[in-house]
Amino acid sequence: MNLIQDLEILDDLDAPKLTAEEAEGARKVYIETYGCQMNVSDSEIVAAILRAHGYGLTRDPEQADVVLLNTCAIRENAEQKVRHRLDIFRAHKRKQRPGLRIGVLGCMAERLRHKLLEEEQLVDLVVGPDAYRDLPRLLEEAETTGQAAVNVQLSREETYADIAPVRYDSNGVTAYVSIMRGCDNMCAFCVVPFTRGRERSRPVQSILDECARLVEEGYREVTVLGQNVNSYRYTENGTVVTFPELLYRVSLISPELRVRYSTSHPKDCSDELLHVHRERHNVCNYIHLPVQHGNTDVLRRMRRTYTREQYLALVERARRIVPGISLSTDIIAGFCGETEEEHRDTLSLLEEVRFDHAYMFMYSERPGTYAARKYKDDVPLEVKKRRLQEIIELQTRISLENNRKEIGRVHTVLVEGPSKRSPEQLCGRTDTNKMVVFDRQDFRPGDYVRVRITDCTSATLFGEPLGRTTLAESAHTEPVLV
Ligand code: SAH
Ligand code: SF4
Ligand code: F3S
Q: Of 46, 110, 194, 195, which is best to mutate to test ligand 3, by the most ligand atoms within 8 angstroms of its C-beta?
């Protein structure tokens, strides 16, 4: 059986090679990551913890002594994917590698806890997102007792601030830096507050130090992460540092370091934050600002704490304070009780805002959430599907129309690596987070390149490179019509 072939994550095959140091160790660990950017960042922390205890990393699950799945519980299909992978690894263990230890980490581990052991008898480890420091001990325990080891304790303090992540899957150009964990918002549909626990922020200096280290190592872009990143708040010697202040300080580390963040909640998108975007040339002109729905009654049922009008007013403010800012969003179709008219309000909001991009989902009931306890999941599947399809078609058209307006403009693109289609082409992002593909010539990952856009799809821009530049140099000149 070829375990890699079965993977949907075939991208892994052309992922960067592990360094000799990362691979060194008597026992090999293979980590597979599902879900959000936070999970990607957590897997780097897990890798660091295990490396420090003598484990080596491997990209080949067949070589692994320990297989860890860092899981997501946000929608039912996310969990199904993991269950399918677990089946495959368990069969591999049974038939070929009895000594293999299989662990479930992350949000599904936290949600299902002991149930996971009952249902999936061949899981050796169940470890929640705040218990990764305990992994080496749990692995030992599983090894010596032959029994499953579990730690799903959530914490009010853990931020892994002192752990230097091992960026084993990195392109060497862009990196995630976790700055807060957990979420206190309790949106009615969402499992995250249950799987990630209470909100807590990481000490300011540890964040600045990590970003400075990344710059020294040659990284050109950081995305600071949190479930509700713009509610970051850290008190030090009686002084409170809020998100705009933190972002500002990160942006001062280097004029050549691009700074992004994800994911922000509209309630915490202050004018002060927008002014940081405006003032700092290296804080990207892009905000992912999940709206979830276009109807105020649905937003209230979702407990999102803003109305349609307030969200639209925020978009207007963002565009006034930061001209040219690019916005993307998340949308849920078919939430409890959603009427046809309410659904049309989502469509009309998309028309009104004209986001550059959207992640669009069908509502999936999560056990234990407010919605699961209080409302009926009463929109029939066929209706959910049709509504989602309408949303996707509309947004794809809008993304394409927005991208067509880019043709003829010149953008500064940070090169991330070869394009998926051809090694002769490179890809990278604009300041506004749009992916651009262009001819390689002699450009390299990490270069800032001026690119004139010549063509597009709804998801990608294509262009011709005009030459290298620096971020500081391009700050006041883009986007330019040439
Ligand atoms: N913290 C982020 C979102 C994390 S989850 C924020 O608040 O913006 C990412 C997205 O998944 C959410 O924005 C929402 O659109 C979607 N989502 C969350 N729970 C869902 C559910 N039960 N069914 C369908 N989509 C869901
Ligand atoms: Fe979930 Fe809402 Fe928190 Fe986002 S803000 S993680 S959607 S509860
Ligand atoms: Fe999924 Fe957990 Fe992230 S539920 S989206 S991995 S916070």
A: 195
pTM equals 0.94
Q: Check pocket membership of 460 for ligand 1, CB cut-off 6 A.
A: no
As given in the structure block, the two tokens for residue 444 are: 């390299």
Amino acid making up residue 226? G
Q: Is the dihedral of CA 159, 165, 169, 173 positive or negative?
A: positive
Distance 95 CA to ligand 1 centre (A): 38
Among 34, 45, 74, the mutation site with the greatest number of ligand 3 atoms within 8 A of its Cβ is 74
Atom 5 of ligand 1, residue of closest alpha carbon: 74
Q: Mean pLDDT per 10-residue run, the chain (482 residues)?
A: 46 61 85 97 98 95 96 96 94 92 97 81 90 97 92 96 95 97 96 97 98 98 97 94 98 98 96 97 98 98 98 98 97 98 98 98 98 98 98 98 98 96 95 98 98 98 97 72 43
Q: Are the beta carbons of 409 and 426 closer than 8 angstroms?
A: no
Alpha-carbon gap, residue 27 to 43, rounded angstroms: 17
- 32 contacts 70 by C-beta, under 8 angstroms: yes
Residue (of 147, 159, 157) closest to 122 by Cα position: 147
Q: What is the dihedral of CA 29, 35, 37, 38, to 10 degrees?
A: -70
